[in-house]
């Protein structure tokens, strides 16, 4: 298959000397209007580092003649691995200062597509059942390459925070499926480009590397690529090579991890005597209610963290054990003093829901800033967050720990993830009657954190955006106005064009700015991005009329481009302060599902039906979102499976929101 990309593209070129001595021509291109913003040198240097890393890792030279990367507009995916001619969405050309998490995400994407040149292009799956193998392998090896061959040496912390969070969420939906899913038709293919195929699959491959050993794993990979170069293969072909190099029978492992869906829970049971010495320790593995998972083998690290004289939680003990079955006795910890925090799945070696013992969980949340590294802090918070989602603790208990963590966290992706969780707490997981109090508190805390952050830092930029997004009181809103117009600037915060739009949209959603300010900013920013952000702002206007107009346009106007659609949907749901604005659209949703599905392409229909559902209205009086979706599913059993899946996933989200609100 040949890819052809045509347009007024400009760019830069370079060469790479492949492992077999060939000169490989490299190119990176974007629209002329974005050329001044394209950091070609960084992109090409990153690409060459990836070439060198993968040639060594895979044991074979780059398999094609050239390697171009084109950043294209209105792309409905992150990127596409056409052999020698990769296309990326041009959101990855940053015209204003991006947060570091997005720059790292671009690096992962660039190396993900490069990994596909070997795994997916040089060796291609026979059928879509092995889609996961292409994507999981590219996701795993791109993170490995970013961690070991670029400046983002802590990429596995990003993976734990962002990618694994995506996988765990997806794996607990009613639509979960095995990593190696059965694919019957192209609709199955389209819906399975998801967190299972990418992030869970990559997590499982990381666990497999730990299970068989890295050297033996990649020896098998090299043999597999050599045996099937420029041909088609199946997972069984890879499994045979891995069994040969590792000397292990992997059939049971593959069945439990790849051919069965769901996630299990790891939970400790321990006893401590009066002197604080551990007298027994058992790690239980459980199957969550309703999960299709079976008990699985895990390689797990357990870390003990003790508070030192300086008030820091330092790791005092670490062990690795093999877990298999319902209960595993951990004799290595018996007879040792009990640490303040016992962290299950320390270093994030396996894929599992984690529960800490009650004393560890309480201590960790109360002293979350005492962790000296991002990864253990993130693992402890992830466990607490999963408990919020499972309605085991209230969102109000989680919020203080998240805000405290933001006072010390500097890892960009972790900061990004924590801010997203804060937004979910105050916008969804707290009952509507309590939200304004907590929104005001969050906005105050975020603004204070932004003022205390290092001037000009990535953390300050993220915190300022978050403070603006939650500004509620007159004082909070006017502070954002001061940042926007420069009348009361925040030291170190450079308000470039994209940040101006972020602040303006927050002020629009708060009711402080309106159409006049939107129009003025659109005149100032006469670009495609400017038009997209203006549409988002208009959809965020906090009036019933504006929401009705946005709904009508999003549902009926099939001419809306991809990026405008995505940003407009985000504006429509920007109602943290006014969730009642979306109440009328809960019933209306059930009436437009088939209309949208039949009038749009799959991708556009999926984006609309997943992105327009008025989840912030769940929990309001006289709003029965669960009933609306259940009624639709009961009366549309003959609808396409892919469409039913979208509606079921919305229903899953509704149930989770209601569950979280019930314990708040």
TrEMBL record:
Domain Peptidase M1 membrane alanine aminopeptidase: 44-257
A GO biological-process term: peptide catabolic process
Keyword Lipid biosynthesis in record: no
Cellular compartments per GO CC: cytoplasm; extracellular space; membrane
Name of this chain's protein: Aminopeptidase N
Keyword 4Fe-4S: no
EC code(s) of this entry: 3.4.11.2
Species name: Actinomyces graevenitzii C83
Catalytic reaction(s) noted: Release of an N-terminal amino acid, Xaa-|-Yaa- from a peptide, amide or arylamide. Xaa is preferably Ala, but may be most amino acids including Pro (slow action). When a terminal hydrophobic residue is followed by a prolyl residue, the two may be released as an intact Xaa-Pro dipeptide
UniProt domain ERAP1-like C-terminal: residue ranges: 342-656
Enzyme class: hydrolase
Gene3D superfamilies, per the entry: Neutral Protease Domain 2
Keywords of the record: Aminopeptidase, Hydrolase, Metal-binding, Metalloprotease, Protease, Zinc
Gene Ontology molecular function: any one: alanyl aminopeptidase activity
Cofactor(s) demanded: Zn(2+)
Similarity comment: Belongs to the peptidase M1 family.
InterPro entries per UniProt: ERAP1-like_C_dom, Pept_M1_aminopeptidase, Peptidase_M1, Peptidase_M1_aminopeptidases, Peptidase_M1_dom, Peptidase_M4/M1_CTD_sf
